[in-house]
Design a protein that fits this description.
Number of domains: 1
Number of helices: 8
Length: 163
């Protein structure tokens, strides 16, 4: 048992494993957060809504350590894949880096809405945070799909209609 815990701890410090753990966090965190934000807004649960906004902010900010771990893991990822995948993997990493600003913007929107929770303009800030988070969620979903196409070639790039 102790050796498994030690092994898990070592794996968590491995950039290749850590980036895999963090990769879906914006997708699932923002998705669940948007559902909870809708529920807490309809039920007027102010304290819970603040907790949801903070959770969404943290999930959006998880892009920063994800990118750091991904960049550290890229040489080893490239070494374990066929050479032909190299440019595609590097392009995907570049795409992840170039779209990180959207997640930071969603995090800022959530932080601003949480900070304005006692002002008369809170509902405007909340709407802006929800819209920015929704856009970051869709971006995360698209980026996740691109990762799946890269690492799981059996997933079709474009599925046709079945009749």
């Amino acid at each position: 048992m102790w050796s498994e815990i030690t092994s898990l701890w070592q794996s968590l410090r491995d950039p290749e494993y850590a980036h895999l753990l963090l990769e879906p966090l914006p997708l699932y965190g923002l998705g669940v957060g948007l559902i909870l934000l809708t529920i807490t807004t309809l039920t007027r649960e102010r304290h819970t809504r603040l907790a949801v906004l903070l959770m969404m902010m943290l999930c959006a900010l998880s892009v920063a350590p994800y990118l750091s771990f991904r960049l550290a893991a890229t040489p080893r990822i490239l070494a374990t894949r066929p050479v032909a995948y190299g440019p595609v993997i590097e392009a995907q990493t570049g795409l992840r880096q170039s779209t990180a600003w959207a997640f930071y913007l969603a995090a800022a929107g959530c932080a601003l809405a949480a900070a304005m929770s006692r002002t008369k303009h809170f509902h405007h800030a909340l709407a802006a945070a929800a819209l920015l988070s929704l856009m970051a969620f869709w971006l995360s979903l698209w980026l996740h799909k691109k990762e799946c196409e890269l690492y799981h070639p059996n997933i079709l790039k474009q599925a046709g209609r079945s009749r």
